């Protein structure tokens, strides 16, 4: 896609003069364009821009096309691909911290049902686990010895659903890019838990003209998916542009019996003013009804691998483990509405309100009850969430105090709340779980709890540039004050805690090809409101986790390659992890201190004869620094000095993109090394490899169809049967847990439970814009 900077018509004979004037006017235009930093503030004053700095964020010089005809017409264009390498699997970055981004060039080649987790799976800092091939149930992230529970997951800079529910946030067609900043979060971001960094999904920018996009996908496991997006174009002459989209997804469970359905709506509005002000709104609605997967123990996994005997839900309605008695039903609305107002030339104001609310329930087998007449009936147990609500806003003033320093200060408020209960109902005669709200089946309302967190935070930041903007310094401080509570039938617990969060980032651009950067900061995590709801008030609320992190990095790019290398060191106190309780339920506990150090390296090539390679690797040395008491076996675990839980030492990735005329293709490989999956270090998971292939062809426009495209997406091409991650943390392989497996009744198992890679899948998609 090309951006048009300017177009002028003049009389013949002025071509030379106009070509020079056009290049000069572009430099002036670039200088006067508001410079929006990653933190969102804009500098509105114009500065002279030298030819060396008239390049895309310091990247290679843009190529200009000058066309001269009788009625002289000059068109100046540039390509967004100038910022990409590896077919969009890597992007040139300039922030003084490690940033890893995949953009729309790569996203458009992937399966439309992909979530952000699928899109970032080849970044050097992450290992991704997903329970199904089509993103119906989200998944988990491991990064630098931490997990997605330590990460801020954002949509347009606003907190969104957790990784295991990430499909609720946005449809893939409406994602422009996904950026990961491992181990770092900017001072002004409204984030509560960002010890392992942030992941931000940037939403689609509405088109200037009326039109849209439509696609249809069909694949293995009876997948059918339909998507349509309508673009309003500019509404009148208001400068307001918008879009609305709808998708419908239906698929079978890949393991055992089960049907999964999802419906989703996205809505976006944009308005920009010539002085640099803008307003943006994004709203999504998500409805889903899916079968909750079984997650096998090591014993069950090896039985499946060696004998083919699965562990999925039963298709027999008389079986208590019937798939319709193991379902997740959920409705959610999410809103983000960032506003940037240029008040005067040096003063700007930012406001980012956000809101989300979700309601639904998880059903699971609850055994049987004997009635007065001596007959027995199956029972369904529920995790019923009457409301899971998050509301908040960040307000920030920014001022250019001089030509070098932009100072911002602000306030962040957030309120998290969950109201949940655990009712029991009779199972319907057809074996399906009734709604827990149906009085005709209700046995009892069960325990009821509510929990939440209220946050007040003040922050200040100075963003300074010196030495002709080569030296970039960002220094900030955020002070967080939080009140956390947990209430049930047995009482109420609460506490007030504070967290000082300093940050210093320094970047130096050596020349147009080389940059070095340094980042150091403090960060914290506290249990989420939903996690607290699983702790009875007899159990103390875990202390806040606190992290001190340092990072040193180097970047290089030219017309052939893009390279980024970083070294990092973390020290974490009061490490909080989550134990999987079954049926999509988790509970937090603390495992003391740990430290992690290592390096990330990623490199990608610009297109050569249509080929764009990509490779990345991470080495991680993560160590548990504390012995931990195991309440299940009543012993002190000698865990000090062992490999930290869920922290593989090596991650490696390779990708190759090919484009020629209308044809495109991408292949990727990911490797995760062996890892410990228990705090005691007595249960481990071997390394594994995952892979994907994308192939497609874009035809020339035909009538109203502006970009008719067909593509095929393949996952797990080799059909490997591997575990891709532990469902949570456990103390020891000797810990007991309740296990549901296939047609078996619930029984006591031992050790961790796991996500496994879905078998080979293929998806075909036809699409076009119009």
From TrEMBL:
The keyword Transport applies. Keywords: Cell outer membrane, Membrane, Receptor, Signal, Transmembrane, Transmembrane beta strand, Transport. Pfam families: Plug. This is TonB-dependent receptor. It comes from Asaia krungthepensis NRIC 0535. Residues 1-31 form the signal peptide. Its main location: membrane. Belongs to the TonB-dependent receptor family. It is a multi-pass membrane protein. It is found in: Cell outer membrane. Residues 42-89 are annotated as: Disordered. Residues 93-187 form the TonB-dependent receptor plug domain.
């Amino acid at each position: 896609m090309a951006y048009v900077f300017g177009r002028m018509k003049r009389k013949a004979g002025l071509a030379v003069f106009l070509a020079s004037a056009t290049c000069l006017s572009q430099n002036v235009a670039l200088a006067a364009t508001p410079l929006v930093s990653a933190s969102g503030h804009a500098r509105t004053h114009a500065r002279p821009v030298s030819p060396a700095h008239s390049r895309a964020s310091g990247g290679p010089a843009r190529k200009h096309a000058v066309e001269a005809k009788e009625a002289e017409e000059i068109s100046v264009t540039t390509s967004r691909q100038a910022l990409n390498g590896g077919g969009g699997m890597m992007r040139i970055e300039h922030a003084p911290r490690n940033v890893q981004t995949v953009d729309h060039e790569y996203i458009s080649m992937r399966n439309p049902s992909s979530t952000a987790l699928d899109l970032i799976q080849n970044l050097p800092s992450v290992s991704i686990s997903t329970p199904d091939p089509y993103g119906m149930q989200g998944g988990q992230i491991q990064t630098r010895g931490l997990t997605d529970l330590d990460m801020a997951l954002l949509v347009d800079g606003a907190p969104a659903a957790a990784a295991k529910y990430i499909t609720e946030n946005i449809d893939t067609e409406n994602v422009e890019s996904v950026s990961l900043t491992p181990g770092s979060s900017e001072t002004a971001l409204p984030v509560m838990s960002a010890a392992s960094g942030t992941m931000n999904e940037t939403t689609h920018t509405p088109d200037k003209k009326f039109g849209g996009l439509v696609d249809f996908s069909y694949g293995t496991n009876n997948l059918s998916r339909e998507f349509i997006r309508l673009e309003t174009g500019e509404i009148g002459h208001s400068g307001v542009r918008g879009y609305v989209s709808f998708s419908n997804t239906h698929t079978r469970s890949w393991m055992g019996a089960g049907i999964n359905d999802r419906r989703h709506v996205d809505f976006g509005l944009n308005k920009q003013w010539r002085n640099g002000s803008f307003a943006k709104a994004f709203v999504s609605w998500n409805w889903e009804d899916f079968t909750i997967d079984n997650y096998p123990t090591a014993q069950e996994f090896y039985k499946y691998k060696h004998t083919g005997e699965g562990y999925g839900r039963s298709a027999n309605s008389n079986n208590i483990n019937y798939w319709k008695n193991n379902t997740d039903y959920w409705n959610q609305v999410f809103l983000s509405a960032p506003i940037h107002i240029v008040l005067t030339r040096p003063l700007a104001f930012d406001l980012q309100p956000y809101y989300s609310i979700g309601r639904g329930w998880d059903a699971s087998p609850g055994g049987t009850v004997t009635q007065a007449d001596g007959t027995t009936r199956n029972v369904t147990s529920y995790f019923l969430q009457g409301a899971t609500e998050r509301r908040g806003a960040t307000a920030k003033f920014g001022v250019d105090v001089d030509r070098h320093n932009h100072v911002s200060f602000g306030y962040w408020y957030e309120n998290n709340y969950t109201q949940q209960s655990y009712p029991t109902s009779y199972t319907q005669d057809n074996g399906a779980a009734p709604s827990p709200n149906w009085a005709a089946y209700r046995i009892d309302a069960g325990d009821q709890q509510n929990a939440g967190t209220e946050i007040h935070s003040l922050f200040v930041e100075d963003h300074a540039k010196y030495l002709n903007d080569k030296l970039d310094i960002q220094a900030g401080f955020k002070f967080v004050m939080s009140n956390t509570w947990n209430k049930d039938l047995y009482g109420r617990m609460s506490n007030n805690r504070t967290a000082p969060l300093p940050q210093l980032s320094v970047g130096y651009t050596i020349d147009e090809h080389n940059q070095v950067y340094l980042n150091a900061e403090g960060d914290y995590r506290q249990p989420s409101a939903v996690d607290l709801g699983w702790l009875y008030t007899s159990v103390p609320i875990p202390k806040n986790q606190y992290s001190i992190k340092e990072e040193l990095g180097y970047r290089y790019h030219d017309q052939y390659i893009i390279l980024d290398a970083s070294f990092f060191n973390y020290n974490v106190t009061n490490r909080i992890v989550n134990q999987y309780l079954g049926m999509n339920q988790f509970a937090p506990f603390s495992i003391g201190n740990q430290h992690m150090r290592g390096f990330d390296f990623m490199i990608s090539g610009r297109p050569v004869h249509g080929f764009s390679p990509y490779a990345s690797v991470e080495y991680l040395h993560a160590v548990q620094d504390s012995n931990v008491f195991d309440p299940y076996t009543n012993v002190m675990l000698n865990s000090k000095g062992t490999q930290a839980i869920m922290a593989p030492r090596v991650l490696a990735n390779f990708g190759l993109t090919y484009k020629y005329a209308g044809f495109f293709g991408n292949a990727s490989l990911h490797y995760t090394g062996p890892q410990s999956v228990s705090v005691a270090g007595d249960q481990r998971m071997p390394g594994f490899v995952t892979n994907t292939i994308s192939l497609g062809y874009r035809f020339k426009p035909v009538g109203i169809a502006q970009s008719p495209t067909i593509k095929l997406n393949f996952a797990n091409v080799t059909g490997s049967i591997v575990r891709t991650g532990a469902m949570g943390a456990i103390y020891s392989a000797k810990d007991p847990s309740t296990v549901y497996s296939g047609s078996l009744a619930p029984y006591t198992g031992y050790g961790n439970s796991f996500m496994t890679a879905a078998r080979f899948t293929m998806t075909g998609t036809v699409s076009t814009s119009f």
